[in-house]
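Continuing the series of single-chain predictions for the mutant panel. This is the parent chain; the variants come on the following pages.
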Amino acid sequence: EEPLKTRPDVSHHFILHSEEQHGIKLYLSAHFAPLRGLTKQRRSDFLVHEIARPKIQEDPVPKKELAVLTSRDETVLSLESHESRTKRLKSGVEALMQVGSIPQDKKEALELFVANAFPPHVPEVPKTFSIHVQKKEEDSEGIDLTTKGGRSEFFKTIKTWFSKDLFAEYNPETDESPERIQLSYATDVPDKRKWSGQTDYVRFVCFKENLTTTQAVREIAKMCRVKAKDISFAGSKDKRGVTTQFMTIHKTMPARLAKVNKKPSNYSTLKVGSFSWAKKPFTLGELWGNRFTMVLRKVEIQGDINDEESFRIPTEAEIEERVEALKTKGFINYFGMQRFGTYRTPTYQVGVEYLKGNLWDALKLILLSRSDTDPQYKELIDKCLDESSYGDTLQRIHRKKYQEEATILGSLARNPSDHLGAFNSISASIRSMYFHSYQSFIWNCMVTKRIETYGTNPVVGDLVYAEGSDQHTRSKEARVEHITADTIDKYTIFDVILPLPGTDVQYPSNDVNEQAFMNLMQEDGITIEHFKKVHKDYQLYGGYRNMLIQPEDMEFELTQYTDFKIPLVLNDMEVAQKKSLCVQPPVDEAHPEKCALVISFSLPSSCYATMFNRELLHMSSVQNWEELNEKNPKKKMETDKTTSGE
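Parent structure:
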């Protein structure tokens, strides 16, 4: 076994802090030459499918369920047959005609309106149907809608025949319109009191591109006219890429959800489908993991380790050797760089200042974190901090671009001395991130120390989950135990876990013990007592995380291409539309031949594909990004113009 290797990290232009500054130092294989490639040159070069936890209680051989948008048919959860519905609607129209004294020449329009409450919808049919309220003639049938009792009888008829389909509303006479009763579709008027589904929740698959999960939830809630809190999901997905995930919605039928699919796709895409009933909503963390399909373009391998200019196209055997190493050895389960932000200030430094009670320093770090990326903002914020001109600065910055900063400035403008109030004005999820990223930083440093000290085999004193313990539960409910001389043969390195420091975790009993964790935190002036002071607000219990991860179901293909605008993989929408991959243009001066690596793999939840990619390439994610951007200055401009539908 060759020794573990730390490769020097180059970071100087684009991201101002390196992997090594965040504890990310080691590779598991020492002999591989660096491999580089463009990731996410197109959004469609990065596909993510969520994997639900196996339903052990329902299947003796539990299987992981992949989130795939296979159907957008909103009729799959219909509660009655087509024949039964047709018969009911016909009888209901007859009852309305009689009770409402509706003229016979309006019958055809009423029948068409009622039938259009169900798919397939005819767009030409009006969304409302008005019944004019007139005093009933003495010799006519029906009821007098001008009286309150008569209208109550009419509404009772609507409820009897169309309680789930139509909504009736009385509109008194105005200068603009006569007295009338207006019918509209129930899917356009949400009313959960009338819910009659098999369960209280509908599960669906959400397909999105160029949207965060939070943005997608807000858009779905807006289109369905429900609150965002009525929609639940198991994991947050990034904006950059094409992602598919499970969600649940409370008391909302697919017919209303399907309105999301009618929204035009411009710079982002949002679709829903694959509907089914669910007994309960999803909760955060309630997933096994994710299936990734990644395209690395312009793949090159360094031919001579001593010559930085000796990059060439790799052979299939060279890629296969790396894939086999990942299958057997796995990779170090570091928290990726995105956990710590990509701006001047690592997010955990804000958490450190807050924990030490330096609230003003924490606020300044947030306000200054992006100042190096925008000269105009830097000038404004420097002047603001010198002159305490919070209100004036708030009026001059781009509030949508600098949301957290604007929130802080607004709070300080109202009360300049209330630093705690200014910090608490930020959303709870963002505030928690500052503390959790510090726990992640400590974990990264300690897993490096553990591997440097003991290598990649279990040793006495390591922590593992106790037999039968739920690995997905919170730390205070997880059961862990130490490896002993009697039990060491039962475990592999993939069973070994390390704690994230917190108020309710156990630590290894070897040299990577609690004191080793505390010594590292002390370098930042932090003790566990600081955690306890803010525990009530941010629940810094700590947690456990596997040291190494073995990717599952790995597949790869080396392919040639000439035009980066042509996709090399198909997403769910393209598969559903029965599209096929386009033929690449012939090789010429305008389209030189390039090499791409298409690789698919599955990782458990909370594992970073960037760290898998780092071990595969054997190059720092920061270094690979910078070197390729220095050689391809137009990369960002090109990728911003591409979408998966091009």
